[in-house]
From TrEMBL:
Its cofactor is Fe(2+). InterPro entries: Carotenoid_Oase. Its EC number is 1.13.11.-. This is Dioxygenase. One of its GO terms (molecular function) is dioxygenase activity. It comes from the Bacteria. It comes from Williamsia phyllosphaerae.
Length: 465
């Protein structure tokens, strides 16, 4: 006799009490296609393209546990801008887990930290014992593919016309072992550089996809790595893949014993790997411990040093039990590969995140880094958009007074623009703001009213027409 083994299924998560399942983060279950969105102000006539953004968005109310931003199914949001008008559509990425849950009408897989997997009676033999696939962190277009990216797994390929799910993809083998969510595309060569961490040797790999979508370099181990570290993002220069190995270690033995799977080990310090893109030996630098989620950009200097702009946290909040809050600064580090010296300058200490530059300037000097951070330092104030001029050392800001997301640089035919989604925490309506890159502090040229709430977080990409 076959019975539903859901009897052992973990209990539902109370979404009303979970900070990342309620309010501006509450899941969006509607999928819509809406033309001619309402606009306050005027969308610049020279701006044509599409902003795609991914983010965690559980298809059904979660069971067991929910760890933001790793848990949650993927929803990709598309905002098309053309001839002064805007249109919006959104779709779940339909992994086998989402499809099975849609058939059942409720969540079947639990959170990634629970250790629970569904049985064959519940989901069939092929999916029994599997973990939920989570391509919910970023969305990338390269080599003819549109990819929804996971933290460390193979991505899902989407149909660019309607965002329907085409299936898992390995990018011709470059992502066979998986990829993190933040590969980097070199605008000069057209190559996409990918890295991934894993629980088996060689623990850390990098690979290269050519502009035609074919593998140029298959997954290649980074020499000198002897444990699995969480590394969320990378930077890229013309010469180097830049990897910061902050001491956040996966500890499977501790996890099996009921402890945390991630262990912060500040005594190890932070190691920096400059991996030459020509395949020559890795250059290592060693510094004090700190934590990085995201890089702005990096570039080579004529004297052989490497400049890296990133947001530096004192430690990974949520993954280390430290009384003082973790604080974030925008840091410019100049790396000296020959001497091993790391020269750091704090550019801004406004507790920011989501540093972004004009993606056309990746691997080159970028002049401006935009981020989300404390415009108003009052603890109850919402974050605004910050624009750091790296040449002049000045900072401009715009505070929409709502929960604002990652900024995106949008080049127009005549002028450049910055954009971001925001959601009003009082009425939970969402908007997309278009700011002039020349004067972002002046506030939006256009505020596009979204037809449905776009949940807060995470990463996106501008696809110019
Ligand atoms: Fe990220």
């Amino acid at each position: 006799m076959s019975v539903d083994s859901g009897i052992n299924r973990p209990a539902p998560v109370d979404i009303t009490r979970h900070a990342h399942l309620s309010g501006v983060f509450a899941p969006q279950r509607d999928e819509v296609w809406v033309d001619r969105l309402e606009v306050i102000g005027q969308i610049p006539a020279d701006l044509q393209g599409r902003y795609l953004r991914n983010g965690p968005n559980p298809r059904f109310d979660p069971i067991g546990s929910y760890v933001y931003p790793l848990d949650g199914d993927s929803m990709v949001h598309s905002l098309s801008i053309s001839e002064g008008e805007a249109a919006y559509t959104n779709r779940f990425v339909r992994t086998p887990m989402v499809l099975a849950e849609e058939a059942a009408g409720h969540a079947i897989w639990s959170g990634i930290t629970d250790g629970y997997t569904p049985s064959a009676e519940e989901v069939g033999s092929e999916l029994a014992g599997t973990m939920r696939e989570l391509p919910d962190i970023n969305v990338v277009r390269h080599g003819g593919r549109l990819l929804a990216m996971a933290e460390s797994d193979r991505p899902y390929r989407l149909d660019p016309t309607d965002l329907s799910t085409l299936g898992r993809d390995s990018c011709d083998g470059a992502m066979e072992v998986g990829s993190t969510a933040h590969p980097k595309i070199d605008p000069t060569t057209g190559e996409m550089i990918v890295f991934n961490y894993a629980f088996e040797r060689p623990y850390l790999t990098w690979s290269v996809v050519g502009p035609d979508g074919r593998t140029v370099r298959p997954p290649t181990g980074v020499d000198g790595v002897d444990s699995t570290l969480m590394i969320h993002d990378m930077a890229l220069t013309s010469r180097y893949v830049v990897l910061f190995l902050c001491p956040l270690v996966f500890d499977l033995a501790a996890a099996m014993a009921g402890g945390s799977i991630l262990d912060w080990r500040p005594d190890d310090g932070t190691r920096i790997a400059l991996v030459p893109r020509d395949g020559s030996p890795v250059r290592w630098l060693h510094g004090d411990p700190f934590w990085v989620w995201h890089f702005g950009n990096a570039f080579d200097n004529p004297d052989g040093t490497v400049t890296v702009d990133y947001v530096e946290w004192s430690y990974p909040g949520g993954f280390a039990e430290i009384a003082d809050p973790s604080v974030a600064s925008l840091v410019r580090a100049v790396l000296h590969p020959d001497s091993g010296r790391i020269a750091k300058t704090v550019v801004s200490d406004r507790n920011m995140e989501f540093p972004r530059v004009d993606d056309r300037l990746l691997t080159r000097d970028h002049h401006v880094v935009a981020s989300v951070g404390q415009v108003d330092r009052a603890p109850e104030a919402t974050d605004g958009l910050l624009f750091h001029d790296m040449d002049r050392g000045t900072e401009r800001s715009w505070d929409p007074g709502v929960a604002v997301g990652e900024p995106i640089h949008m080049p127009g035919d005549d002028h450049d623009y910055w954009g971001a989604y925001g959601t009003d925490p009082t009425d939970l309506t969402s908007a997309f703001y278009i700011l002039s890159a020349d004067d972002p502090a002046a506030g939006p040229l256009a505020t596009i009213r979204m037809p449905i709430r776009v949940p807060a977080g995470l990463h996106g990409v501008w696809l110019a027409d």
